[in-house]
Amino acid sequence: MALKTLVVNPPLGAPTATVFLLHGLGDTAHGWSDVAYMLSRRPALQHVRFVLPTAPVQPVTLNMGMQMTAWFDVQSLNSLETGEDEAGLLQSVRTIQEMIRAEIDGTGPELNGLRIPAERIIVGGFSQGGAIAFLTSFLTPEPLAGTLALSTWLPLAKKIGELRKRTGTWPIMQAHGTIDQIVPYELGRKTSRFVRQDLGFGDKDTFRTYDGMPHSACPQEIRDIAQWLETVIPQTPREQ
């Protein structure tokens, strides 16, 4: 499935790293374009390209079957961990995996044959998009650089052991506001504990709390994202 995609390329030179940013329910790529532009203009991130796809339009049960952009169906805000749309989740994961493969092969939008190694690709997102980013990172065998999970949770957690395609651990940054009215803060904390303890990530999983932040983003969170990206995909790739 080809998705409409917004690309923010580095202001100077060819990119050496890619960050996927997946939006939340009912949004589009443009909803996070300002953040991508801000990040791309930081001196230490001017080697990074940001790829922002827009989810397909589909009916969403939570909103009385109304058609809207969605990475998967949502039955109820009270059932984020139960009654999950497994088929929809896995379809979106496959779509993002195809886009990741295109980055690696040099066939991604506006790459013109330039290849981005798997270990220089981060998959991230907000809310629904963050759930897909989280799941994609576990179901993709290639050694991606890291996972950025904003105001979100790990879907299909009870099946992650049998679904997981990648072994080992990698850097994960989770971020959540304390007054999130859509994805409860405690669900984010629970996800972090599960990833750190049950999945063995330990300190590889960083959980950042933002007091008074609802289901949104804030300036401090964006600064923290920038610093994390600068550490995980620095301007000069680490020697192998």
From TrEMBL:
Q: Which reaction does it catalyse?
A: a monoacylglycerol + H2O = glycerol + a fatty acid + H(+); a diacylglycerol + H2O = a monoacylglycerol + a fatty acid + H(+); S-hexadecanoyl-L-cysteinyl-[protein] + H2O = L-cysteinyl-[protein] + hexadecanoate + H(+)
Q: Which Pfam families match?
A: Abhydrolase_2 (PF02230)
- Residue limits of the Phospholipase/carboxylesterase/thioesterase domain? 6-233
Any one Gene Ontology BP term: fatty acid metabolic process
Citing just one GO molecular function, the answer is: carboxylic ester hydrolase activity
Any one GO CC term of the record: cytoplasm
Note the Gene3D superfamilies from the entry. Answer: alpha/beta hydrolase
Report the EC number(s), separated by commas if there are several.
3.1.2.22
Q: Does the keyword Membrane apply?
A: no
InterPro entries with a match to the protein in the record: AB_hydrolase_fold, LYPA1-2/EST-like, PLipase/COase/thioEstase
Keyword terms, alphabetized: Fatty acid metabolism, Hydrolase, Lipid metabolism, Serine esterase
Q: Which family does it belong to?
A: Belongs to the AB hydrolase superfamily. AB hydrolase 2 family.
Give the protein's function. Hydrolyzes fatty acids from S-acylated cysteine residues in proteins with a strong preference for palmitoylated G-alpha proteins over other acyl substrates. Mediates the deacylation of G-alpha proteins such as GPA1 in vivo, but has weak or no activity toward palmitoylated Ras proteins. Has weak lysophospholipase activity in vitro; however such activity may not exist in vivo.
PANTHER family from the xrefs?
LYSOPHOSPHOLIPASE-LIKE PROTEIN 1, LYSOPHOSPHOLIPASE-RELATED
Q: This protein is called what?
A: Acyl-protein thioesterase 1
Species name for this entry?
Answer: Malassezia cuniculi
Q: Where is the organism placed in the taxonomic lineage, from the top?
A: Eukaryota, Fungi, Dikarya, Basidiomycota, Ustilaginomycotina
